[in-house]
């Protein structure tokens, strides 16, 4: 199609320099060495930009500490940046159910996760996420038992994940959804949106509207990384 812009950059700040300032002056000085190591390993992956942005990661680590997260779910692992930062933020007897369709990328980051001594906290499942959530819901003991969830996978299923996570999270628990500004396309005129981002734009707009109307959660769409929506279960 003509008149399509090339991919908009993921960062949503007013300039690249400002984003570098945030990274260099706030994020990188406090980033764990193992997370830096994981970013280095991930840089060799052809889809390295899929990894959670380090500034969004810094906020996720803060949220994990604030809710005292011990039992968590991660949907969309890739090479494990957000997974490792979750593991580093929860106590030694904390557990993460981590789901991804693809084990290969996870195995790229696994040596760093092991070196960090965090692998015992992780239950990795190579699977589509929806059946894993359904399976968890078969046991009543899992309802209201998770403190935190992070969703960073197929946008088309975000609402399906949300409905199930609302049962699995305890009241006061938090779920974060990544990419909820979808490269800024949610507010772009149609002719400026690259063709490959159109479906994601539609799903993201629908999801954002439904979340805004969901009285079960308190919400905040933080313009970090590619946009990250924080939902706190209030009922
Ligand atoms: C953006 S990446 C995740 C990045 C990761 N959070 C990080 O910090 O590096 C998205 C991941 O979601 C996975 N994925 C896509 N659809 C999925 C599905 N239906 N169920 C589980 N994982 C899925 C992909 O295989 C991919 O690894």
UniProtKB/TrEMBL annotation:
The keyword S-adenosyl-L-methionine applies. This is Caffeoyl-CoA O-methyltransferase. Belongs to the class I-like SAM-binding methyltransferase superfamily. Cation-dependent O-methyltransferase family. Its cofactor is a divalent metal cation. Keywords: Methyltransferase, S-adenosyl-L-methionine, Transferase. One of its GO terms (biological process) is methylation. One of its GO terms (molecular function) is O-methyltransferase activity. It holds the Pfam family Methyltransf_3. The keyword Transferase applies. PROSITE patterns: SAM_OMT_I. It comes from the Eukaryota.
């Amino acid at each position: 199609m003509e008149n399509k812009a090339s991919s908009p950059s993921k960062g949503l700040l007013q300039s690249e320099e400002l984003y570098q300032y945030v990274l260099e002056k706030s994020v990188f000085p406090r980033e764990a060495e193992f997370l830096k190591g994981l970013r280095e390993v991930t840089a060799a992956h052809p889809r390295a930009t899929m990894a959670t942005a380090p500034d969004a990661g810094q906020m996720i680590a803060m949220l994990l500490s604030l809710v005292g997260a011990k039992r968590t779910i991660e949907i969309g692992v890739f090479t494990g940046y957000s997974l490792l930062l979750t593991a580093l933020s929860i106590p030694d007897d904390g557990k993460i159910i981590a789901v991804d369709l693809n084990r290969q990328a996870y195995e790229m980051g696994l040596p760093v996760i092991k070196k960090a001594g965090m692998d015992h906290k992780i239950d990795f499942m190579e699977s589509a996420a929806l059946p894993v959530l359904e399976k968890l819901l078969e046991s009543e003991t899992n309802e209201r038992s998770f403190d935190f969830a992070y969703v960073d996978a197929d946008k088309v299923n975000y609402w399906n994940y949300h409905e199930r996570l609302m049962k699995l999270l305890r009241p006061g628990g938090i779920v974060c959804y990544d990419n909820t500004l979808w490269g800024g396309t949610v507010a772009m005129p149609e002719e400026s949106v690259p063709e490959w981002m159109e479906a994601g734009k539609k799903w993201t707009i629908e999801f954002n509207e439904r979340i805004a109307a969901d009285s079960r959660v308190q919400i905040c769409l933080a313009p970090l990384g590619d946009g990250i929506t924080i939902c706190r279960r209030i009922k």
